[in-house]
Design a protein that fits this description.
There is one protein chain. By secondary structure, the chain is an alpha/beta fold. It has 3 domains: about 5-60 and about 490-525, Urease, subunit C, domain 1; about 65 and about 195-475, Metal-dependent hydrolases (TIM Barrel, Alpha-Beta Barrel); about 70-190, Diaminopimelate Epimerase, Chain A, domain 1 (Roll). The protein is built from 19 helices and 22 strands. The strands form 3 sheets. Strands 5, 12, 13, 14, 15, 16, 17, 18 and 19 form a 9-stranded mixed beta sheet that branches. The protein has a 7-stranded mixed beta sheet with strand order 3-2-1-4-20-21-22, with helices on one face. β14 (about 270-275) and β15 (about 275-285) form a beta hairpin. It is globular, with a radius of gyration of 23 Å. The relative contact order is 0.14. The structure holds zinc ion (ZN).
C-alpha cells in the first residue's frame, strides 16, 4: 500500500485540531494526523516523504461550480477575452475563419461590452462584414448571451418573424429585425443548428478541463449541467480511472422531462463510480446580471424597461424542483437576480424532502436582506463564486443602483453565512479563472483586479472562512463532509500543497503563493518546475 508522510504546517480546518505538523496517508485515506513522531511511528518501510518546508497544506480545494467541457472547448475556440472593442472581437473571429473551410461554424466567447468604450451591445452587421462566409457565434463572458452574424441567424432560422422563445430574448432593431444578440433560451436556437459534438471531442474537452483543474491545485470539481452524452463520457473515464480529480456531476435539469427522468433513473442505480458522483440536477431560474437576464423585483437601474427574465417560469421551476426532490436527487438552481433567488428559496421550502437533500442555490448573487432568512428556512447551500464579485464590481452598481436594497445584498457572502447558510465556493470556470488562489483573495479582499479598493468590504470573509467554503463547504454541498473537507484520520486523503503558509502572507499576495501540488485519494501530483 502506497504511503505518504506529509510534514510541515498543516491547516486541518478540523476545529478539534486546527493545526498539525504531519499527516500520514495510507492508501486513499489519512492514517494519522498530528506530530511528526506520531505519524512516523505508524509509517511503514517505504513511506514517501513530502516536506512542505516553509509552505503549508490545506484540505484538498474544491471548485463547487464549474463547467469542465466548456472550459476545454473554449481553449480551442476564438477568445475575445481582453478585447477592447467590437471590432477587435470581429477581427479575431475573422482570423480563425481564415483557417476554417467555408461554411463551418466559428465559435468563441469571452467578450464583455461593459468593458468597451461605447458600452453598447455588438451587432451582426460588424461580424458579418468581418466574417462573411462562415456562421459565427461568440458567447458573452457570462455565457448568457450570444453574438452571431447573419449566416448564423440564417442557419438558426431567426428573422423578424421569429418570436422570443420562453425564457429567451432576441435582440431587435426598431423595425423588429434581429440585431445579432440572443439572450438565454434564445441561444438554443443557434445551438440546435450547430453540428453535435463527437464523443472524442467531449472526452478531449473534459480531460483538458480536468487537467487544468488539477494543475490549479483543485482536488474536486462540481460540474454544473451535464447532458446524457457528457455523462456517458464521464462514466467511461471514471471506470477507466482516468479522472485526475473528483467530479460531482449535476444532470442538466432543463431537458425534456422524459429525458431528465430517464437520466435520474439511470444514475440512481450507480450514483458513484470511483471519484465520480452523480446525484444532483442543475436547474435555471433566470439569466445573468451582465446581459440583464437576472430576474429582479424592480427594473434595472440602467434600463427601466426590463426586470430581467425567467429562464424557467416559477411554476415550472417549482414543478421540476419537486420532481427532482421526489426522486431523491439534489436540486441545484442557478439564481442571480433578487427575485429569482427569493423565488428559488421559497420553492425549496415548499418541498418537504428538499431540506434533507441540501438544495443549492447556484450563484445567489443578489439576495435582499429581508429575504436572507429564507436561506435557513430552506436549509439551502449558498454555492457562490467570489471572483464574480470582483469581476462584476466595476459595472454591477450601474445595473443595481447605489441606494437599493438589492445592492446591499449583492454577492453577500457574509450575509449568507450570518443567515445560517453553508457556503460552498467555486469559480464558475471558464466564466472566471479556475485558480482557487484568486477566489480566496477575492473572498477576503473584495478588491477588483488591479485595484486596492474593496467593494462592500462589510461582506468580506476571513481567510479561514473562505478556505472552509472551498473545502468543507463544498464537501457538505455534495453530502461528503463526513469524509472530506478537513484533514482528519479516516477521511479521504485529499490535500492542496502550497510553497508558503497562506496565513502568513498578506491577502493581496495570495494569488502569487506558489502551488506545490495536490494529493487526490492518496495520489501525489507534484507541480513541475
Ligand atoms: Zn455556471
Amino acid at each position: 500500500m502506497a504511503e505518504l508522510l506529509v510534514v510541515g504546517t498543516l491547516h486541518t480546518l478540523d476545529p478539534s485540531r486546527p493545526r498539525a505538523k504531519a499527516a500520514l496517508v495510507k492508501g486513499d485515506s489519512f492514517a494519522a494526523v498530528g506530530s511528526r513522531e506520531e505519524c512516523e511511528r505508524l509509517a511503514g518501510q517505504d513511506v514517501r516523504l513530502v516536506d512542505l518546508g516553509s509552505g503549508c497544506a490545506v484540505p484538498g480545494l474544491a471548485d463547487a461550480h464549474g463547467h469542465v467541457a466548456l472550459y476545454g472547448r473554449t481553449r480551442a475556440e476564438v477568445s475575445c477575452a481582453g478585447a477592447s472593442s467590437e471590432q477587435e472581437c470581429a477581427e479575431r473571429a475573422a482570423k480563425a475563419a481564415e483557417r476554417a473551410p467555408r461554411g463551418t461554424w466559428i465559435r468563441g466567447g469571452g467578450w464583455s461590452h461593459d468593458l468597451w468604450r461605447e458600452q453598447r451591445l455588438p451587432t451582426a452587421a460588424s461580424l458579418s462584414a468581418a466574417v462573411p462566409h462562415h456562421p459565427v457565434a461568440l458567447a458573452r463572458s457570462d455565457v448568457h448571451a450570444l453574438w452571431v452574424n447573419d449566416l448564423a441567424l440564417h442557419a438558426a432560422g431567426i428573422d423578424a418573424r421569429t418570436p422570443d422563445p420562453d425564457g429567451g430574448h432576441i435582440g431587435r432593431d426598431p423595425k423588429g429585425a434581429p440585431t445579432g444578440i440572443l439572450v438565454d433560451n434564445a441561444m438554443r436556437l443557434v445551438f440546435h443548428a450547430m453540428p453535435r459534438p463527437q464523443e472524442s471531442d467531449i472526452e478531449a474537452n473534459l480531460l483538458t478541463g480536468l487537467r487544468a483543474a488539477a494543475e490549479a491545485g483543485l482536488t474536486s470539481v462540481h460540474d454544473a449541467g451535464l447532458g446524457p452524452e457528457v455523462l456517458e463520457v464521464y462514466r467511461k473515464l471514471a471506470a477507466e480511472r482516468r479522472l485526475p480529480v473528483r467530479v460531482y456531476g449535476m444532470i442538466d435539469g432543463q431537458q425534456a422531462l422524459p429525458t431528465l427522468d430517464g437520466q435520474i433513473d439511470l444514475w440512481k442505480l450507480t450514483p458513484r463510480i470511483g471519484p465520480l458522483t452523480v446525484q444532483s440536477v442543475k436547474l435555471f431560474a433566470d439569466g445573468a446580471l451582465g446581459s440583464r437576464g437576472a430576474k429582479m423585483f424592480e427594473p434595472y437601474t440602467d434600463d427601466w424597461t426590463t426586470t430581467g427574465l425567467w429562464v424557467t417560469s416559477p411554476d415550472e421551476l417549482r414543478a421540476r424542483i419537486g420532481r427532482v426532490s421526489a426522486a431523491g436527487y439534489q436540486p441545484c438552481v442557478h439564481a442571480i437576480g433578487d427575485r429569482a433567488c427569493a423565488e428559488t428559496l421559497q420553492a425549496f421550502s415548499a418541498v418537504p424532502s428538499a431540506h434533507r437533500l441540501r438544495p443549492r442555490v447556484e450563484h445567489l448573487q443578489l439576495l435582499r436582506p429581508r429575504d436572507a432568512h429564507l436561506l435557513r428556512e430552506a436549509g439551502a447551500v449558498a454555492s457562490m463564486q467570489p471572483t464574480h464579485a470582483t469581476s462584476d464590481a466595476p459595472w454591477a452598481e450601474a445595473r443595481l443602483g447605489m441606494a437599493t436594497e438589492r445592492r446591499q445584498g449583492a454577492y453577500a457572502w457574509r450575509q449568507a453565512l450570518d443567515a445560517g447558510a453553508i457556503l460552498a465556493f467555486g469559480s464558475d470556470f471558464p466564466v472566471e479563472s479556475l485558480d482557487p488562489r484568486k477566489g480566496l483573495a477575492s473572498a477576503v479582499l473584495r478588491a477588483p483586479e488591479g485595484s486596492a479598493v474593496p467593494w462592500m468590504p462589510e461582506q468580506s470573509l476571513t481567510l479561514l472562512e473562505a478556505l472552509r467554503a472551498f473545502t468543507w463547504g463544498a464537501a457538505y454541498a455534495e453530502h461528503a463532509e463526513w469524509r472530506r473537507g478537513v484533514i482528519r484520520v479516516g477521511f479521504d486523503a485529499d490535500l492542496t500543497l502550497f510553497g508558503r503558509d497562506l496565513f502568513e502572507v498578506p491577502p493581496a499576495a495570495l494569488p502569487e503563493v506558489p502551488l506545490l501540488g495536490t494529493v487526490v485519494a492518496g495520489q501525489l501530483f507534484q507541480k513541475g518546475p
